[in-house]
């Protein structure tokens, strides 16, 4: 019987990436006291999720102000690996836990300014060990983020088990989920900004479908400060309502919520698990084993890297 502690750190971005990184580091003592083995941090935490922004884009034309906004946004993105992942590696060693964190990643090569919504994996002993770029940005996210490819679909060996996952709505891609199931995933990480109850219902379904643990870490963003002008608030958003209300959950392989949802505030959500629960749950449904009809269905996954021009 092996016990591990899973955690979701429900926070939102500060005005700068450095300030956001400092906020993450401020949870060091709380994470150490909780003896966490894995901590998941929400989608686009480093770099930010600019909810409500249009980047000056309208059907058929774009305003110069949007280019300035994109420039400012790009300057808060990170390279992988880079100084921020080095800081997170040191933090991972301090808390002795694997980190899965949502970031905004720049291409990091001369001549390319494409941004990606990415999960970065940090190991307490090895440091940076892998990343996953969001395959399908949703709706107007496609204005500012490129598409990932099959070369970043890792399953990471950690002390808590084999971990991997997807970002926000790409979790709704059935073949993506099956590709991870086929790699023997134990813990599914789902950093997101989706605060709705239907999202938590989906996470329960995917835990039960894959017979794996799920850690869904959701951002928390308060309302815009009252001193801001109305142009800085998302159009149509209720005055005084949190932009993102959280809702982080931890779910067991039978689809039961074992921690959360954490709503309306920042904070740390934790749950102690027994790793053998994955085996128990797959007794009657193993989506990559006895319940997978490989003789009938074939899944082909192209894990080669694609050229930049095909990504956006």
Automatic annotation (TrEMBL):
Query: GO molecular function terms here?
Result: hydro-lyase activity; nitrilase activity
The segment(s) forming the CN hydrolase domain are 2-275
> Which InterPro entries does the entry mention?
C-N_Hydrolase (IPR003010), C-N_Hydrolase_sf (IPR036526), Nitrilase/CN_hydratase_CS (IPR000132), Nitrilases_CHs (IPR044149)
Sequence similarity: Belongs to the carbon-nitrogen hydrolase superfamily. Nitrilase family.
Q: What is the protein name stated in its UniProt record?
A: NIT1
Which organism encodes this protein? Candida metapsilosis
